[in-house]
Specification:
mainly alpha
């Protein structure tokens, strides 16, 4: 019986040593798993921060794109108004040129009238001179 107790004690001791060794291995593997989980957790946090930063940058880019679109729309409206104003200005300038052309035509006509008056004045002067000469000759003849 003592021999059985001794064998049982030795067997139990061996089992306890094996269990202790297995527990040490489990503890070691558990520590490695825990370290891996911590590393994965840090990677997940880093990925989450990177995703958040990316989302914020996308929102900023979207806001900038909206502002650019608004400015482009404003610019388009101003361009349309400018083209309309230029068309009106062109019409006004064309009417002004027509008015100036009409004035030039009227001045040309006035100039021709003055030229005719000058020619008529020269003819009248010539006639008066001739009448004066005839009058002198008539006065000398008498």
């Amino acid at each position: 019986m003592v021999h059985n107790i001794n064998e049982n004690f030795n067997a139990t001791n061996t089992t306890v040593v094996e269990v202790k060794s297995a527990m040490n291995q489990v503890s070691h593997h558990s520590s490695q798993i825990n370290a891996s989980i911590d590393e994965i957790s840090r990677g997940a946090i880093h990925s989450s921060e990177a995703i958040q930063t990316t989302v914020e940058e996308i929102e900023t880019a979207t806001q900038l794109a909206e502002q650019v679109q608004e400015k482009a729309d404003t610019s388009k409206d101003k361009s349309v108004n400018m083209v309309h104003t230029l068309r009106e200005s062109t019409e006004v300038v064309n009417r002004l040129v027509q008015g100036i052309q009409q004035l030039a035509d009227e001045q040309e006509a006035s100039l021709q009238g003055v030229t005719h008056l000058k020619e008529n004045a020269l003819q009248v002067e010539s006639i008066i001179s001739m009448v004066g000469e005839i009058s002198e000759q008539t006065t000398y003849s008498h």
